Amino acid sequence: MAALIEIKGLTVDIPTADGVLRPVRGVDLSVNSGETLAIVGESGCGKSLTSLAIMGLLPRNARVTAERMALAGHSLLGLGERQWRDLRGSRIAMIFQDPMTALDPSYRIGDQLMRVLRRHHPMPGAAAREKVLAMLPRVGISSPETRFGQYPHQLSGGLRQRIMLAMALLCEPDLIIADEPTTALDVTIQAQILSLLVEIQKESGIGLILITHDIGVVAGVAHRVAVMYGGEIVESGLTAEVIGRPQHPYTEGLMRSIPVPGRVRRRERLSSIPGVVPRPVGTLTACGFLTRCPFAETACAAAPIPTRTLDGQHAVRCLRPVGEGGHDPLAWDRLVPAERMA
Hints:
Blueprint: E1 5-16, E2 19-31, E3 36-40, H1 47-55, E4 63-65, E5 68-71, E6 74-75, H2 81-87, E7 92-95, H3 99-102, H4 109-120, H5 125-138, H6 144-148, H7 157-169, E8 175-179, H8 187-204, E9 207-212, H9 215-221, E10 224-229, E11 232-238, H10 239-244, H11 249-256, E12 308-311, E13 314-316, H12 331-334, H13 337-341
Parallel strand pairs: 3-9, 3-10, 7-8, 8-9
Antiparallel strand pairs: 1-2, 1-4, 1-5, 5-6, 10-11, 11-13, 12-13
């Protein structure tokens, strides 16, 4: 079966006064209809910029290149702004991290939703209003007539995110990209929004790319996961495989950083990955995780690291995957960033 969205070798270059930033480096991704792909990683790893590249929303000075970037077999490379505007909302939709900044504070909710709908499906105002009012209960919004006439600041964070979900679904797109859609919400509302996404996906068969740093969210909703670090996909595969037996040291470090009830004692120091994501300037000539990895060897600094397929769909960009043995689990506790970088 052909992938709904297929990306191969996606790279983003942004010129700056200090050199060329390359926050996305040769990313390969694919999503099928009815499938959820989660992209996880720390802030600054390139997750959001990858999604903006797929949506054609990067700054004008950004240069996007790829061997292939296609939606349902149709190339997205070289599209003009008018073509992107026709595509965004109708075929590909995005749910942004902060709905308060994504919604226009000077327009009522109903007017904003109707404008999106009528941009892609010209229809009389009464018909558009009827369709919007029918969509609001579908995303869990009660009293649709009241919400229709309210402004964004009059709604709670959870309701605003539901409005963004309604906006994304109005034109029945093939693919939705959700960029940290629950970060600013409390735990109960997070669960409701994610449950709603999964339910709607089952009903409509849309493809979903979920960008998050929450491994717990990934385990609950994603079919496959891609772990991103330093602009590269360092590990990918079926969710159960990647979470159940992580092969890249970075993925292992992320899993170790999750507090486990009953295993972490009071006043005990939580595990973490020392150091920060390196600034993505210039060409990468070594493993991007080199200065933070407790298992790094001389060979890791010699050349770019190729991606290896271990079994089935499980792939890792590492010279010494965790499953090959010889890794001391206590090495994480002894790792000091300054020593690794010296």
